[in-house]
Amino acid sequence: MELHNLQPAPGSNKGVKRIGRGPGSGFGGTSTRGHKGAKSRSGYKRKIGFEGGQMPLQRRVPKFGFNNINRVEYKALNIDALEALAAAKNLEKITVADLREAGLVPKNALVKILGNGALTHKIEVEANAFSKSAEAAITAAGGSVIKL
């Protein structure tokens, strides 16, 4: 095989349908667009969501609510998870990096500590936010709270 012998596999290339080139081509006259109507005219573009005159879905379905652009999303963690982590790794201070390393928190998430569970160890906890009950439980166990 040499460069001058190369050709595509049979049936892999298909010719372009040349429309609007006279009656002899078989695609002259209306150029495969049918007769009259918006779709036969140049510049026709169907609107997004157009359903042939039927009331479109985005207008049939009721709207409600809104998305607050100022909302701050936290990854919630209970103090029983902190207790288990502190016991397993023998930690005195738990940081957000420790929580990420343990797989409890995604990479860029803000962390909020919630007060479900009991705390027996004296732990220093570092997080973005704390619930009142979590803060009370941590300080009652002799630990401290650091808000980032």
Descriptive report:
The model has no long low-confidence stretch (mean pLDDT 92). The strands form 2 sheets. The protein has a 3-stranded parallel β-sheet. Strands 2-4-6 form a 3-stranded parallel β-sheet. 20% of the residues lie in helices and 15% in strands. It has 148 residues and is an alpha/beta fold.
Q: Output the strand order for the largest sheet.
A: 1-3-5
Order of helices and strands: HEHEHEEEHE
Average pLDDT rating: 92
Low-confidence stretches: none
Short synopsis of the structure:
By secondary structure, the chain is of the alpha/beta class.
Q: Could you name the key traits of this structure?
A:
148 residues; 6 strands; 20% helix; 15% strand; alpha/beta; 4 helices; elongated; three-stranded parallel sheet
Layout: helices, strands, pairs:
Blueprint: H1 57-60, E1 74-78, H2 79-89, E2 93-94, H3 96-101, E3 110-114, E4 124-127, E5 129-130, H4 132-140, E6 144-147
Parallel strand pairs: 1-3, 2-4, 3-5, 4-6
